[in-house]
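It is worth pausing here to work through a concrete case rather than discussing structure prediction in the abstract. The textbook approach is simple: state the sequence, then state the predicted structure, then interpret. We follow exactly that order.
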Amino acid sequence: MSMNFEDYQKDAKTWLHQLCDYLGIDDEQKAGRIFKAVLHAIRDRIPSGEAVHLAAQLPVIWKGIYFDGFTLHNAPVRIRDEEQWLEFIRSKDAFAANADFPTLDHTYYAFQDVMNFLRDHISEGQYNQIAQALHSEIEVPA
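Step two, the predicted structure:
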């Protein structure tokens, strides 16, 4: 089996271009940071087994970004309400949070857009498992 890095890059860029459309922005760097922040928040909020199942559906390069800094944990990060969830997402974009998520409203809409993107790019079963793993007060697109 050959390693075709050009195809991996193409797949990752295709997702990034499509994500820009979902977010309604042209800035690929910003879209990438937003996607990474939301993916990392989801990864740390859902059980480890589910996190691995989600990764299996990501393009190879996004899979590497997704697992960057990942630590297996016995229990998911505890989230008490939607505001805490949105702050948790912002915390995953440490250096650019104020630019990418200037308010919690921006964070909310970015999260919704990323979830809509994921709903359209991963299996329905995986999407539903992620949605169920998030706190019941967190609004997830159906």
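Step three, interpretation. Residues 7-133 form a domain with the Globin-like fold (CATH 1.10.490.110). Residues 16 and 32 are 7 Å apart (CA to CA).
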